[in-house]
């Protein structure tokens, strides 16, 4: 068990990444009850936007200076695409039966992937992303934290804190809560609900761009398909934490990340379970956990019991 | 109302189908009495032209295209013009099967080159066998494809006599890798990772058996999931296992990431893999240095063979957008083998293709023998290549450099 701290660190970093993406699912669902399956692709576009921003910078810019620029560049792209998707794909269907926007989201997801594949130079295979160089920080003998992991572990709580303050304290944030509770009444009270919905999409997209930069500097490469699996995992994290609750998204992400890391490392050490351990089964265990949690708490870890949101 | 629309739909579909069959038969008729005009025959290509393996797939497509163009230019088979129809399987077995059905449906197709993935090939073999259409894969390495499911027990039985390949099997490759790693590189403790796919899991198992037989120790095993990207937990297991090397059965997208993430943990051990990771993208897709990582590949390095120089020149001259990649030479040879078979069939039938051209091409393929890009090209009784040359490559200075070439005999 001497590698436990290390596996916990791996799980936390992975979970923080899931959490950042899960914010986008949970915000949009909380306000319009739409599962935006194209959000994984918004994340992917954030990554390519950040890469473009990096390419514009003069060569030799250190990563610490480049990262803020990359986040801004990525966020501009992902927010623009998310807002356009809301305006042209989802808004016309807002009063349609629920399945229609869901299918639209899946279609949009495929379309966005293919657009990047077709038009971004060299995106037909994985493209290099600037990466943190230098050794990992050695904390103890058995625990070393990668620079990129440290980056996401610092950035994710900061982003969450900022979002929490925004939603609780600011005027727009309160308008957002009101719209989530009851869109019709919110409208009667003079809240521009269309603007609030766009804002929810934009915030989710900005978080996705942050996640994409964190992902890129960690893995050193991005590709046009990366949004699919990560989006699916992030959606799972959002459900696990209680969809509609922003803190739940982060908690769900961390729980999912830890479950994956620990199941890879330890399930096979349980006597008789050797065949069911390792990387091949990590997704299975993650989803077993999801099912167990949903059996006990159908509303998710931090979700509120709502009789009928529709 | 509902019934009526169903009726209309059925009518439309039936009419459409009848029209199409009519078209088909007319085409066939005009071909027979074409006289002076050249007969067009099609070589089908099935490979992942999009997706993460597209670097390899595009190389396959272009190389077959080059073989067809060369044959047309040299008038290799008088009276016959070769065309290439390339279909994209995205490395998905179901797509491969659909493509196979489509190629079988095209009457002008006399042979198919592809696919890249062994798992895809499994789904295509049956379709081609029932249509008696020859298939030559430039890249499949799973032994069961040509020697039957019980090849491991020493029972060799060829399941489909329409299946040929210019690539050597994993038995050859996995054993060669184990011998190199144990004897030449002096590694005794290996951690084995695979991607659970037909190719990766098979290769890893063959490697493990041979490595143990030589006296080495397998200190741990793990599996990764294709298209996932975070392997840090697996990487840490490698580190804490005390392994002095890692063997990976799988393709370069996961292999590259795994190699990087292992090195990031501070475990300074080389990762070795099969021809699936022997691609520039394995090295270039990330910033982390892959120095010292190893791979095996079938044949001698294309760049070093005299027979391949012309291929490389011609490939450049055609100005293809993507490089010929790991399987370019084998794809050219596979395409050329089909062309040679067509030539033999036409020569035996007064320069024209007989009605049962497909079956005749299958028969002729078993007998082809020529000096190809990758050496002598011929097939044994299972449809496997008789070429058992292998090369170990190592990453040096950000490039794959060949370190040892040998002929495998065992």
From TrEMBL, chain A:
Main location: membrane
Cross-referenced Pfam families: BPD_transp_2
TM spans (from-to): 12-32, 39-57, 63-87, 99-120, 150-167, 196-216, 247-267, 279-296
Subcellular location, record wording: Cell membrane
UniProtKB keywords: Amino-acid transport, Cell inner membrane, Cell membrane, Membrane, Transmembrane, Transmembrane helix, Transport
Membrane topology, as annotated: Multi-pass membrane protein
Keyword Cytoplasm on entry: no
UniProt similarity note: Belongs to the binding-protein-dependent transport system permease family. LivHM subfamily.
Name of the protein this chain belongs to: Branched-chain amino acid ABC transporter permease
Gene source species: Streptomyces amritsarensis
TrEMBL record, chain B:
Top-rank taxon, per record: Bacteria
Keyword Transferase (UniProt): no
UniProt-listed PROSITE patterns: PROKAR_LIPOPROTEIN
Domain Leucine-binding protein: 41-399
Record keywords, A-Z: Signal
Record family assignment: Belongs to the leucine-binding protein family.
Name listed for the protein in its UniProt record: Branched chain amino acid ABC transporter substrate-binding protein
Natural source organism: Streptomyces amritsarensis
